[in-house]
Design a protein that fits this description.
nine-stranded mixed beta sheet, six-stranded parallel beta sheet, 0% helix, 32% strand
Length: 197
């Protein structure tokens, strides 16, 4: 599949969009932004200067990805979800030197209308529920929702809820859909190497 950029979108000189990516209607990609391979950039998306988007990322309609945000591979950003990059904005105060960083790690999903307050990390394969307000780091594989968002469970890489059983040294779980197995010690979930799909 070749690169596709809808004619209504603006891609500034100095923006990089790699092959097999599709940029839909009314988007703006600023100079200094980088979008990886095989991404889908939905309608009315804004990507600011200095933002790096990994490969196979899906950004749904009406999302703005501001300076300070990094999005790794295989991330899903749901419709109208929100990033911020300043903790204490004021119209009359220039805080461009105060931008905080936000990292969305590989495989994470963010639901529609969720808000990610700047300065946090979303862990690998984490899942942020629709409408959540994330104010602190989210562990790998965690399911969070609410305002403020709290850990409500754990999900497999394929998106199915994990049910952990007590073991001798750690709790373990096997995905009912794909068969992948995980261990959990306190709030740290890891796949068991070489086990499952």
């Amino acid at each position: 599949m070749a690169l596709f950029i809808h004619p209504s979108s603006v891609v500034d000189d100095g923006a990089v969009v790699e092959d097999e990516t599709r940029v839909w209607h009314f988007c703006h990609l600023m100079a200094g932004s980088h979008i990886g391979r095989h991404c889908s950039i939905g309608q009315n998306v804004f990507i600011a200067s200095g933002v790096h988007i990994g490969n196979n990322v899906k950004i749904q309609n009406n999302v703005s990805v501001y300076t300070g945000v990094t999005v790794e591979d295989d991330v899903f950003l749901g419709p109208s979800m929100v990033f911020t990059n300043v903790i204490n904005p004021r119209s009359h105060v220039n805080r461009r030197d105060d931008y905080q960083t936000t990292l969305v790690k590989q495989g994470a999903s963010v639901g529609a209308n969720a808000t990610i307050v700047c300065g946090v990390e979303l862990g690998r394969h984490a899942f942020v529920g629709a409408g959540a307000v994330v104010t602190r780091n989210v562990p790998d594989y965690a399911l969070v929702y609410g305002n403020p968002a709290q850990v409500r469970g754990w999900l497999c890489e394929c998106g199915i809820k994990l049910r952990f059983l007590a073991g001798q040294q750690a709790e373990t779980a096997k995905c009912e859909a794909c068969g992948k197995e995980y261990s959990k010690r306190e709030r740290v979930v890891q796949p068991l190497a070489g086990v499952g799909a």
